[in-house]
C-alpha cells in the first residue's frame, strides 16, 4: 500500500477519476431495500481494490457510498453515512489485503462477506438499529455485495489476463506483492 500511494501519476489519477465517475453512475442503480442505499456504486471500488491496490480501492469505495447516500437523501443521516463510507473503505482494504495473500477469488468472496454481513452486523446495523433491522437488510446487502464484487472480480481477472494493468517496480501490478 505504501508504494501505491507514493506512485501517484497523472495516469493513476485519471484512472481513479474514471472509477469514481463509474461509482456515480452505479450510485443511481439501487437495490430495493428499507433505506434505498444498497446500489451498484462499489463495483469500481472493488475493481480498484483487486487490480490497483488497497488505497485506490478504499478511496473509490468510500466516495461511491457517499455518492449513493447523496442520491438517496442521506436516509440514515450524514454521520451514519460517513461511518458507512469508512466501513466501505475498510471492506475494500480487506479485499485488497486478501488479494495479496490468498488470490483474487478468495478476496472476492471475502469482500462479499465483509460488505454483506460482517461490517453491517458488527459496526452499523446491529449496534445502531438492532437485529431486526439487520435481518431486514441482510438479503439486499448480500445481493448488492454480489452484484458489486462479482463484476469487479470478472473485470479484474480479464484486465489481469490481458496485461492491461499499470506496471510498477519489477514488472508487478500495483496490487501484487513480490514473489518469494
Give a written overview of the molecule.
This protein has 180 residues and is mainly alpha-helical. It has one domain: Arp2/3 complex 21 kDa subunit ARPC3. Helices cover 74% and strands 0% of the residues. It has 7 helices and no strands. The chain has helices spanning 2-6, 10-26, 43-51, 54-72, 78-102, 104-129, 131-162. Helix 5 packs antiparallel against helix 6. It is globular. The relative contact order is 0.16. Residues 168-172 and 174-180 have low confidence and may be disordered.
Q: What is the CATH third-level topology name?
A: Arp2/3 complex 21 kDa subunit ARPC3
Question: Biggest sheet, in brief?
Answer: none
Please state the second-level CATH architecture. Answer: Orthogonal Bundle
The CATH class assignment is Mainly Alpha
Order of H and E elements: HHHHHHH
Compute the number of structural domains: 1
Mean pLDDT: 86
Q: Which term fits the overall shape?
A: globular
Question: Radius of gyration in whole Å, from Cα?
Answer: 16 Å
Beta-strand residue percentage? under 5%
User: If helices are DSSP runs of H or I spanning 4 or more residues, what is the number of helices?
Assistant: 7
Amino acid at each position: 500500500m505504501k508504494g501505491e500511494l507514493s506512485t501517484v501519476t497523472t495516469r493513476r489519477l485519471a484512472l481513479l477519476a474514471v472509477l469514481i465517475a463509474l461509482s456515480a453512475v452505479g450510485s443511481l442503480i439501487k437495490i430495493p431495500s428499507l433505506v434505498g442505499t444498497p446500489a451498484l456504486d462499489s463495483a469500481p471500488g472493488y475493481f480498484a481494490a483487486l487490480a490497483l491496490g488497497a488505497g485506490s480501492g478504499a478511496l473509490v469505495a468510500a466516495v461511491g457510498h457517499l455518492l449513493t447516500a447523496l442520491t438517496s437523501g442521506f436516509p440514515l443521516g450524514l454521520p451514519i453515512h460517513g461511518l458507512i463510507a469508512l466501513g466501505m473503505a475498510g471492506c475494500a482494504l480487506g479485499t485488497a489485503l486478501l488479494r495479496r495473500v490468498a488470490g483474487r477469488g478468495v478476496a472476492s468472496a471475502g469482500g462479499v462477506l465483509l460488505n454483506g454481513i460482517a461490517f453491517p452486523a458488527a459496526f452499523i446495523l446491529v449496534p445502531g438499529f438492532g437485529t431486526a433491522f439487520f435481518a431486514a437488510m441482510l438479503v439486499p446487502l448480500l445481493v448488492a455485495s454480489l452484484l458489486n464484487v462479482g463484476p469487479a472480480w470478472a473485470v479484474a481477472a480479464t484486465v489481469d489476463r490481458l496485461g492491461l494493468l499499470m506496471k510498477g517496480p519489477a514488472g508487478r501490478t500495483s496490487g501484487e506483492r513480490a514473489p518469494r
